[in-house]
Design goal:
single chain; about 375 residues
Amino acid sequence: PWHRPVPPLTLNGELTMSLIFFVFAALAAISTADMQLTITETLPTKPLDSVHLEGSLQSDAPLFDTTWQWFFDGSQSPDQERASKNCLNFPCRVSTTFNFTVGFHVVVLKVLNIREEEIAMANVTFLMPEALSDCTIGAAHYLATNAVGNFSIGVTNPPLTGQLTATWNFGDGGAETPFTTTQHTYLQGGDYFVDVLLQNALSNCHPTVEVIVLDPVLDFRVLGPAIIAPNTLVQFNTSISKGTRVRFSWVFGDGEVLYDGGVAPTHTFRNPGQYTVRAVAYNAVSDTNASLTISVQEPAASTASSNVLVAIPVVVSIFSVLLIVALIAYHRWYHRTRVAEEADFSFARPVQRPQSLRLRMASLLGGPRAPRKYDTFDDDDDTL
């Protein structure tokens, strides 16, 4: 009849043994299967974004009721639940996202079987980058030609080491370099603009700096006269074989100093003497000095005049002595002559009349000669 009870299901010994063998074979297959688990991370392209993680499992045998567990920096995340999964087709994948702080992180993925035994494990270490803030280029503002210049990048809040790349452009067609610290040499003078592109996975910065390259000062000389007169305005000159944006400072040796006096300054020396004029030629990358000795002397005409002035008193003295000697000699001669005449006159014949005034004047004017003491006169016409 329809209400007759159904007999209970019974397993004979052969079927029971078959099922037991099948279960143990499956478990053995899961335990001994060749499995490979990998993790792929996708870092963010903007700040404060999450990291995408994906686990991929390869196996030679199907897996039933597997459990996937994520561990972040040594502990299981409370936001991540245990994921149960049957893996019949491979690769078998599972993915998750997580927000990491800036820095290095270690992610571990474990796969457990139905008996909570670990059958596969993989880990990955990555660096969570930091967004770049303001950055600058560290370099000397002035460089000499053919000199090695050091260049570096400075960041206000530097990110962790190892995540930056840099591309340099030195403005003279020089080779680019990927390093954040580098060196460069300029072969010609001029103004150059150096820029660098600094970037990481999240951001970049592009600072620029101006570098002025100058030729150093070479073969510097000071030019000027060797001998001058006092109170004479003298102009000096300079000579250099090489140098750009050169300035000159002067020390004239008489206590006067002229800073930034130019290429050809002028100066007046007040007093005679020997003076050493020194000059310094300098720019932002070099400096050198040179000197010139100058003699300040009185003119030759002035020297002759002073000698004449000194000789005049000597000549006058000598002339005075000679004049005195001549006067003394004349006085002695005149005295001897008068004495002799008086002696001769005392023995003369009758004394004659003295000469008339007319005869004396005639003698002085070239007329008839004056009578001698023995001459006789005609009283009528006063003729000899």
